[in-house]
Amino acid sequence: MLxxxxxETHRVLPRLVALRQHLHAHPELSGEEYRTADCVAELLAExxxxxxxxxxxxxxxxxxxxxxxxxxxxxxxxxxxGLPIAEQTExxxxxxxxxxxxxxxxxxxxxxxxxxxxxxxxxxxxxxxRVKFLFQxxxxxAQGARWMVDDGALxxxxxxxxxxxxxxxxxxxxxxxxxxxxxxxAADSLVIEVFGRSGHGxxxxxxxxxxxxxxxxxTALQQGISRMHNPLRPVVLSIGQMQGGRAPNIICDHVVLKxxxxxxxxxxxxxxxxxxxxxxxxxxxxxxxxxRLHYGNGTPSVLNDPHLTHLxxxxxxxxxxxxxxxALPEPSMGAEDFAVFCEQVPGTMFRLGVGGPTSxxxxxPSFDGxxxxxxxGVMTLAAAAVSYWRL
Length: 391
What we know:
Number of strands: 16
């Protein structure tokens, strides 16, 4: 079966390359993946899968039935959305949508998901159970997985195990990075409003400068992390937006800070809202300002199932060779809403190397995942799905 997967992958590879480049040229933002979803649904229907569109708004689900000897259903997930970034490449297939590009490789993920469907559809008579393909919208806004779960994407039939990948420019092309257990960080949102008292820029002592207080809040939070938190339980707090002020000669009376909070340890994550509010309250009180704080629980950590992760490892060794397998020594502080699926069913995500001498990082305006990792990605996902029924 594994050799058949390899042969079929290379047979369909030219079509997948053309498909990936088409998707790269026509990116769509989170929740707006209409053309992408239509492309996915059309190809899945062509393969003879049962197709449901509009699952989780713009998501697509395709169900491939095997010979019925095993009642379990394996899931394969691929995300589809682009990012609000203007592409800065000279690629012949560069984005044709102003201000939008596939800067995180979801064009590659979608093509690999469709390639996996093509390969397994050609082998359907040999498949003991069913394969459910989940093409997810809005991963970049950490909403799409929840939309699909709430819309029943994991049910009817119930998914027993779920596999996914994410391209990774820190690994060479085609290398598969695996890690059981904690794989990504939990990502929460933070909004802090600081209320001061306006006044003339020449007489700051008669006012309460909200910009100055807000700057002290940011400094106190960063210093507090380094001195008050266990360094073996990492936390990353980043304030990405600061908005306030009306004119250069007017003391600002209202500042809004917006940021993200990343953590790996569940107990640390639970304690963070209270700790952050204490720092904000004490800092504002010291300078005569008021505040309002909103802490939003966002995406949890991806927790890779050990058995499914080891299964992926075995597939890579057999199909690609041990030289294409790399154990990831540490989790990422990035977030992935694949975690929402993993709260419902056992799952594992692996890294797919797309790196080279001139590679750019994810979310960079010159990033391109390229086509070299398509075949390794398809073979690994297809082999993992097939091998699951042997567990």
